Amino acid sequence: MPDPRQPPSEPLPMQSASTKLSIGDLNVRFGSVVALKDVSLDIADGEFVCILGASGCGKSTLFNVVSGLLKATSGKIVLDGQDVSNRPGQVGYMLQKDLMLPWRTVLGNITLAASLTRGATAKDRDEAAELASRYGLGDFLNHYPHALSGGMRQRVAMMRTIAAGRQVMLLDEPFGALDAQTRLGMQQWLLQLWRDLKRTILFVTHDVDEAIYLADRIVVMTPRPGRIADILTVDLPRPRPLEVLTTDTFVGLKRQIMQHLYH
Amino acid sequence: MNTRFGAAAGPFLIWVVAMVLILVAWQLLVWATGLPPYVIPPPALAFSTLLDNWPRLSVLTGQTLYETAIGYLLGAVIGFLLALAMGQIRVVQRLVMPALIISQAVPIVAIAAPLVIIFGFGITPKLIIVAWIVFFPVVVNVLDGLASVDRDMLNLARLMGGGSLRTFAIVKLPACIGPLFSGLKIGATYAVTGAVIGEWTASSKQGLGTYLLTANAQMNTAGVYAAMLLLTVIGVGSFLLVFGLEVLMTPWRSRSTAPAWAQWKPSQPAS
Ligand SMILES: Nc1ncnc2c1ncn2[C@@H]1O[C@H](COP(=O)(O)OP(=O)(O)O)[C@@H](O)[C@H]1O
Ligand SMILES: [Mg+2]
Fold this sequence. Notes:
By secondary structure, chain A is α/β, with parallel strands linked by helices. In chain A, 33% of the residues lie in helices and 24% in strands. Chain A has two domains: 172 residues, Rossmann fold, CATH 3.40.50.300; 68 residues. In chain A, helix 7 crosses helix 8. Bound molecules: adenosine-5'-diphosphate (ADP) and magnesium ion.
């Protein structure tokens, strides 16, 4: 179901635009395992970047370092011109697991960041409810997570990351556990969110189609040691109807990426 | 969606059926063996003895119930706080755990005697015995609950800027409620046993336990059975009370939506 709404026309964010996040020459070793080797990447404000690679090539490790959870062996993270290396809490991070608190309702989970920092106010809850309703969770605000489907839980986790208010969001395989149909719906849903909210998104996936459909740029990673093999710009117009999945540009990109992944 | 309130009606019904079956079996045993009432009194005799002596038995029940309840609360609170301390501070856990296990390995009857020597024949040794029995399952289960909190959940809390106190209250503490009740339910059935042992070894004041001993010595078998019935009612009642409390306090386990009082409603009417 292609989104019939026409978005405001906006230029494709380019690397030359103002740099939001800069990953500088990261190296991460776990004992003798080199999880990341010489990883450098600049991400523009408002850009949607997909990190694509087989499992074990260091995608989650990259996010753990960028978020400040994990100390890199060397390298630094610069956000808005500020060195934020090893400072947790500067970017939003949606981990690979949905990590719902079972005893909190959907709304309680979405307002988690406010509760953890200063206590959620009525205003926080109203805003979260408004946001969640706008993106299809209106009927589930008072549900407990166990009563939701996998797709719904991912939406809640995404809303929680958005409500935390960070401009840069790291999403680690958010749709990895969903079936193909649900996944396509979620991808369209996410693109709509991204268009409306103008956040900068780094999105980890091992699904080539997903990366091409979503991204402005695709960072292809290869394992042992985890490093960037190539960075490709996706020259597909937005909004992207499902038909782009079969265009020549799409298939050409896919072929290019496959060569890196299965050389 | 079926809630546990609904599902709980099943077990309650089964309880009633189970009790009726026990009474029937008891009566059949009396008939089949032909044993005299002073060996096995029939249920009717036990109940009539209970009713005839109700003015006295009710006072004794009150006393035993009091010891059970206070000792239980004492054990539950101490166990819960101890588990929280052990869960938060590793050193405490390392030091205290062996002592806890030793404390439970000593036969409870053996502990009673020195307690009387220390505290005399007042209510204190009885409360300590009940608490001693109750606190252990609480500690063990709450510790398990604390350990079960997902590390990534704690990482997420850290990323969201959660202070340690708020993270504890929002992420860790609620994870202990289910396990806490598992411990409390085990404790609820044992507590009354603790009270009886306390009365047998450390009593100046009469309770159902002391009554049971006296009735037994006087060959008042129907009285023994009456006391037994009342003790059983205390045990089962405590369990059901705790179970009911659990269902109320863990709505996320039994319901798909929050109870009405916890539901969000817009603070201003939508435009
Ligand atoms: N905490 C850790 N300790 C040791 N090795 C780790 C740790 N985290 C990840 N690794 C290793 O680093 C490599 C990259 O892991 P990860 O970043 O999870 O990959 P991906 O997310 O791309 O599947 C793997 O070989 C993994 O085994
Ligand atoms: Mg991963």
